[in-house]
Amino acid sequence: MNAPSPDSLFVLLHGAWHSSWHWAATQRSLTHRGAASVALDLPGHGFDAPLPSGYLLPGQPGLATEKSALAGLTLDECVASILSTLTEVRGRFRTVVLVAHSAGGGPASLAAETAPHLVDRLVYLSACVPAGRPRFTDYLSTPEQTTTARGRGLGIGDMKSLGALRINPLSADPSYIEDMRQTYYHDVPTEEFVRWRRALSPDLPLALVTTPVHLTAARWGRIPRTFLRLAEDWAATPAMQDLMITEADAFAPDNPFTVRELPGSHSPFAARPDELAAALVSDLG
């Protein structure tokens, strides 16, 4: 087993509706491999996530109509929170690896563009790479995504009115919950998925996926980067992942992606955290 040098740190950034909690099993596996890590919560996520007032009540009154408390959250606020952590750890670790999952790829990319000296490697775990197209929604609307992606019926209410992409992890509808599992966690057994979904928050601020991210080859493009491609991902399809990789490599051709593939769903931190940790560690070898 190749262990990373003790002066390396993985900074783990979650995706939509997730939080630092979801990295716990991966962090344990990284620790067993001699790797240091820290998992971040973007503003409005984790313990700080505000909930719609009826979310925990019987019948969930107003869930489809109540404006999100995160409606005004900006991408810049999210990037600032990432940069704060990167600045803090930069002086303590020689090698800092920023790992982003899914919708976390947008703010992670902008953080790296803003301060490339704070990041030694970028790892995209089936994550948004806004090099070819500036918004995650630009990729989510491509034929590469829409042809085979699942989960189109998971949204609650009108996202523009709510100011957020809202889902209902506490739904009492078994078919809705199964659609959620099949979309994001299809290789996690139903009885285990109960725990994972209950740790999700219902609102994703629209700004994270709709605000344009403008990158440059001279700053973001110079940072070594890896794409961990998920072969059976029904939330961010392999075809869309390949499109993002291809367009990013065309954007910064002098520094193309290193691409590694993992089997399974959009959530390897739940289904196979040991394999995920091994892939992260091997990238430093």
Automatic annotation (TrEMBL):
Keywords: Hydrolase. The keyword Hydrolase applies. It comes from the Bacteria. GO terms for molecular function: trans-permethrin hydrolase activity. It holds the Pfam family Abhydrolase_6. Its EC number is 3.1.1.88. Residues 10-279 form the AB hydrolase-1 domain. The keyword Hydrolase applies. This is Pyrethroid hydrolase. It comes from Streptomyces platensis. The gene is pytH.
